[in-house]
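Exercise 7. Given the encoded structure of a 752-residue chain, write a plausible sequence.
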């Protein structure tokens, strides 16, 4: 059996994070020595075992499986042929499997336990796209901390998050998991989330390994159709797709997950250029590259490999260290080494990376570090986490429209109607990726109104989902025909002073495998909205969604629109806080809202065309049947108060450019504003976007208060990657814009 004590001496280091491995300090060296010693004892099979990851299967605490795939996996665990596992969770299960491997497999190398703790665990935080709308990095970090704490208490030491894929296409269901369309905002959020999951010291049993995924380009699936082809220019790759990954690596992220897609003709999992050249060589990434589920075997369907044996060689040589559920490494890698297609050095490099994470976590010292059942109990439902979730949800909401000052609501003496099946739904607000949470555990809107003592009359109107229970792995049946409830809703709405309508997407209409071609309000909800509007236009639409929706009709007709996204466990309470003005909304869109899905892809940092327009004649870049501008632009979001920007001053110095502006709260309520800074490179060797976000600051201002905001942009912020992926800084004239959205109009210029 492997001796843990022998290796504990190497773990007296004071600060164990992956980024500290970059420093030439003793902790890193001692871990490398420990790895050398361990690897010297390992057979080739055992080494390949560390590169093999299985999905969890049978009840680990029950009888051993006797046949089939379960038995096959079970035997492999015992033989030391598995290095990590996913979806085994809960202290009892984790301990049982860890004990089996540690006590019964040859060298007893402890397992890593992975799980998609994406936006919460027992407590569900808002979906990541919603959190991105807060532009609140400390809050986002806090949210990831809650997720890590609960997952760690349940035996998990590796989360497959954050998802840092930039996407410009709201049809893609997985936009709910990311931070939206902008590489700068995406990078800042990626770093905050990595910090939140990993903390800064892996000796703590509350910190877990994070994963930046999906490397790379997954968010650029053609047509927004999940798993589809990605074909992007080197400029898009280097300037848009890669920055959040690089930021994650700089933040010390422990692992990176390959994406399913091909990118420019080569599957990401076999992409040497991405993994070996960029990630491992240029960025000096020292952690583990894990494939996505079966992304290895899918190379056969892509037409890139003939068989699994070839998959094994292609992936290993490209630097994909761990095979998740493709069975390529475990079944074929040894042969590929024997026949000379993969060198032992390649295997050793991957194994070293896996073992490094295990040493960093201190698993050789204590393989049961994450198996404390008291801790598990404490974090099964933690009141502090509920309040973090509520606060995060409020910060994530975006006030899209507030005409007639319907909001904040003053319910006293008013007749309030609440309409929409989502208003009583306790499951949908949890969104997708909430596998550890109890079904239907969110606070619904009607429950929260009750708790706040608001009286109202509720009518569901039409149902969103047709039929019985919903399933994570199956298509969601949407109600397209059954209008039962429509008449009742209309009659309830008729006499109300204000109608709160909660409409939008079900939590399982976005996420993996859930691309939509139409971004309308699904099912019969648009008809319901129009029918209610006919009898009473005083509507506040609370929009629940996992992506930007095309809500042009509502934007033109409904006076109040609050985008709640999918807010998580505390959904109802957070929405009521905002509706009643207990919290003044400050969210800003991290992704453009299109006027219609036919405009997609649509994003703010587009290139200018040679025919920008508008022009009197038809010959400019536009549609003849739809505006070419967004419905709500990137960075947009209102408050119950108003802000104005003035006094823009730009002062270049040798290494940086300082930009100051005065922000004034011109309204009558205290509120927060996200001040955004954009640049535009007027003329360059490679055409640059019309605007690029380069900084933002979130500030709280009393009514009437003004403050000076200062951004210091390093000169490097004005550069870009050229088509060869080389950083390029050109002298020239740059426009600067500061304001409350990507349409900011306060502008100046600087010559650099
Ligand atoms: C497939 C998803 O693409 C990925 O994000 C996830 O981490 C794995 N499955 C594991 O569940």
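Solution.
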């Amino acid at each position: 059996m492997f001796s843990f004590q022998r290796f504990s001496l190497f773990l007296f280091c004071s600060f164990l994070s992956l980024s500290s491995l970059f420093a030439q300090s003793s902790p890193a060296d001692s871990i490398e020595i420990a790895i050398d010693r361990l690897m010297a004892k390992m057979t080739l099979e055992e080494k390949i075992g560390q590169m093999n990851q299985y999905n969890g299967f049978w009840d680990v605490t029950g009888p051993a499986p006797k046949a089939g795939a379960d038995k096959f996996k079970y035997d492999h665990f015992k033989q030391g042929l598995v290095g990590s596992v996913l979806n085994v969770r809960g202290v009892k299960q984790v301990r049982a499997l860890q004990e089996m491997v540690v006590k019964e497999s040859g060298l007893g190398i402890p397992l890593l336990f992975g799980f998609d703790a994406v936006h919460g665990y027992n407590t569900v935080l808002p979906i990541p796209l919603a959190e991105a709308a807060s532009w609140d990095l400390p809050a986002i970090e806090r949210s990831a901390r809650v997720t890590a704490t609960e997952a760690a208490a349940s035996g998990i030491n590796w989360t497959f998050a954050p998802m840092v894929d930039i996407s410009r296409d709201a049809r893609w269901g997985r936009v709910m998991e990311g931070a939206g369309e902008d590489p700068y905002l995406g990078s800042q959020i990626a770093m905050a989330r990595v910090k939140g999951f990993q903390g800064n010291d892996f000796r703590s049993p509350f910190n877990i390994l994070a994963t930046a995924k999906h490397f790379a380009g997954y968010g650029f699936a053609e047509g927004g159709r999940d798993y589809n082809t990605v074909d992007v220019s080197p400029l898009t790759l280097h300037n848009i797709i890669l920055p959040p990954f690089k930021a994650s690596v700089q933040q010390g992220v422990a692992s990176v997950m390959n994406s399913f897609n091909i990118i420019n003709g080569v599957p990401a999992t076999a992409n040497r250029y991405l993994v070996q050249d960029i990630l491992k060589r240029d960025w000096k990434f020292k952690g583990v590259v894990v494939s996505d589920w079966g992304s290895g075997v899918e190379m056969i369907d892509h037409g890139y490999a003939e068989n699994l044996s070839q998959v094994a060689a292609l992936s290993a040589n490209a630097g994909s260290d761990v095979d998740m559920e493709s069975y390529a490494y475990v079944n074929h890698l040894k042969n590929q080494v024997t026949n000379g297609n993969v060198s032992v050095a390649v295997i050793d490099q991957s194994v070293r990376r896996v073992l490094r994470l295990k040493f960093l976590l201190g698993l050789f010292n204590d393989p049961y570090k994450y198996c404390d059942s008291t801790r598990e109990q404490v974090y099964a439902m933690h009141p502090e986490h509920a309040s973090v979730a509520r606060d995060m949800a409020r910060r994530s909401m975006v006030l899209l429209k507030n005409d007639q000052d319907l909001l904040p609501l003053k319910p006293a003496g008013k007749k309030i109607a609440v309409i929409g099946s989502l208003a009583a739904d306790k499951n949908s607000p949890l969104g997708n990726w909430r596998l550890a949470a109890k079904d239907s555990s969110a606070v619904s809107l009607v429950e929260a109104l009750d708790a706040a003592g608001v009286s109202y009359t509720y009518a569901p109107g039409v149902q969103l989902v047709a039929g019985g229970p919903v399933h994570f792995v199956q298509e969601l049946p949407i109600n397209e025909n059954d209008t039962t409830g429509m008449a009742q809703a209309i009659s309830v709405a008729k006499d109300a002073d204000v109608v709160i309508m909660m409409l939008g997407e079900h939590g399982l209409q976005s996420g993996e495998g859930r691309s939509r071609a139409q971004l309308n309000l699904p099912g019969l909800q648009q008809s319901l909205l129009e029918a209610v509007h006919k009898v009473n236009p005083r509507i506040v639409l609370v929009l629940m969604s996992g992506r930007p929706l095309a809500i042009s009709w509502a934007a033109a007709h409904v006076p109040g629109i609050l985008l709640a996204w999918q807010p998580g466990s505390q959904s109802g309470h957070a929405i009521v806080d905002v509706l009643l003005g207990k919290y003044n909304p400050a969210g800003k869109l991290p992704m453009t809202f299109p006027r219609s899905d036919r405009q997609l892809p649509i994003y703010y940092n587009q290139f200018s065309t040679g025919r920008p327009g508008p022009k009197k004649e038809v010959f400019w870049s536009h549609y003849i049947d739809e505006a070419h501008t967004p419905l709500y632009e990137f960075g947009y979001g209102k408050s119950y108060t108003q802000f104005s920007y003035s006094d823009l001053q730009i002062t270049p110095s040798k290494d940086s450019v300082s930009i100051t502006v005065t922000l004034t709260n011109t309204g009558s309520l205290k509120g927060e504003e996200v001040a955004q800074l954009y640049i535009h490179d007027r003329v360059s060797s490679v055409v640059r976007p019309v605007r690029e976000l380069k900084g933002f600051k979130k500030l709280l201002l009393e009514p009437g208060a003004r403050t000076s905001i200062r951004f210091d942009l390093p000169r490097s912020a004005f550069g870009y990657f050229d088509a060869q992926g080389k950083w390029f800084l050109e002298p020239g004239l740059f426009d600067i814009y500061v304001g409350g959205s990507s349409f900011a109009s306060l502008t100046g210029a600087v010559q650099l």
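Remark. Residues 1-14 have pLDDT under 50 and may be disordered. Students should compare their own answers with the one above.
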